[in-house]
Amino acid sequence: MFKLFTLPRLSWSSGNGAQEKVVLTAAEVESLRSELADIEEREAQLKARLENIDETLRSAHLSGYLYIRKRWAALPGEPPPIDDTDIDDWLPRFAVLYGACLYLYLLCTDLSPHDSTLLSDIVEIDQLPSFKREDDETRHAFYILTRHGLRYECSSSSKIQVDSWLSALNFDCELESDTSKSK
């Protein structure tokens, strides 16, 4: 009677041609089915995530990795901020210029942005002086200043990438930087 309730033996072949028999209990089979269902659900979520990222990048005006750090303007009555140019707090972020916003993602595969800024809140965009990192890599930089006093300092080792961001942001924000005014 007990043999009626046991699962048939599954055969697994090993690399040396010998046959090994594995007996699984009903609980183990159910556990494996549950794991497979979880894997299929995860696969579906990742596919949807990839399609969302793909659609966003296709319709984005500009996107790419930039090294970014944030600074806040001093409030009235506060002492001026300390000179922190020697501090290397530049973090890589995936920036996407899409619609009326600038989105900052931790990674290009993230589904939701880590930070965002409306283009209508941007009051100033301009270049910063190039600088060298400790590995002697030259970084070209620019900044974005919002009306709330938040300043995004952005850099890249590619001058072409920085110039592309400056021209796209100036065009989308309908601003002229100091460098374009002097030309």
TrEMBL record:
PANTHER family in the cross-refs: OS05G0595500 PROTEIN, PLECKSTRIN-LIKE (PH) DOMAIN PROTEIN
Bilayer-spanning residue ranges: none
SMART domains, per the entry: PH (SM00233)
Signal peptide region: none
Keywords: Coiled coil
Protein name per its UniProtKB record: PH domain-containing protein
InterPro entries on file: PH-like_dom_sf, PH_domain
Domain PH, first and last residues per copy: 59-174
Gene3D superfamilies: Pleckstrin-homology domain (PH domain)/Phosphotyrosine-binding domain (PTB)
Coiled-coil parts of chain: 22-56
PROSITE patterns on file: PH_DOMAIN
Name of the encoding gene: Vigan.10G225300
